[in-house]
Amino acid sequence: MLMRTDPFRELDRLTQQLMGPGTWSRPSAMPMDAYREGDEYVVAFDLPGVSADAIDINVERNMLTVRAERRPVAKADDVQMELSERPLGVFSRQIVLADTLDTERIQADYDAGVLTLRIPIAERAKPRKISIGVGTGRKEISG
Questions:
Q1: Which of 100, 127, 104, 120 has the alpha carbon at shortest distance from 40?
Q2: pTM (2 d.p.)
Q3: Are 99 and 37 in contact (CB under 8 A)?
Q4: Per-residue pLDDT of the chain (143 residues; tens, 9 = 90+)
């Protein structure tokens, strides 16, 4: 049998039991990191135990939505659960993307339970040098 002494984990577990698993109409939040790396933004979501076909990524205008579902693992009839801390159900996160990001070229990779989205910065938002034209002086229009 396993023993724990962290009272906050126990509180989280009780809250999860009372609230129930996330559903498509009321999903649970998923942890994420977001940072800039060179000319792109990177967003990483923790989704351990979720299969790649249970992840749905959508972009509508500037709203990025990631939804995932962790389904229960089939167990034999003679299995008695002693401890269950890994939440099941639906997880979702919505992020408002800046207009300076190129939503047409988002790349998604899923490895070791981490979904990584790479969102490039749009060309129009990158700094650029503007050349200055040098005139030959004033021109007079005669008529």
A1: 120
A2: 0.68
A3: no
A4: 444 455 565 665 566 555 555 555 556 778 899 999 999 999 999 998 899 999 999 999 889 999 998 887 777 888 887 877 777 788 888 999 988 899 999 999 999 999 999 999 988 777 778 888 887 666 666 66
Q: Where are the beta strands (DSSP E) in the chain?
A: 28-29, 32-37, 40-46, 55-60, 63-70, 89-96, 107-111, 114-120
Structure tokens at 6: 């962290």
Asked whether the beta carbons of 69 and 91 are under 8 A apart, the reply is: yes
Angstrom distance (rounded) from CA 49 to CA 70: 7
Q: Residue 75 corresponds to which amino acid?
A: K
* CA–CA gap between residue 22 and residue 88 (Å, rounded): 7
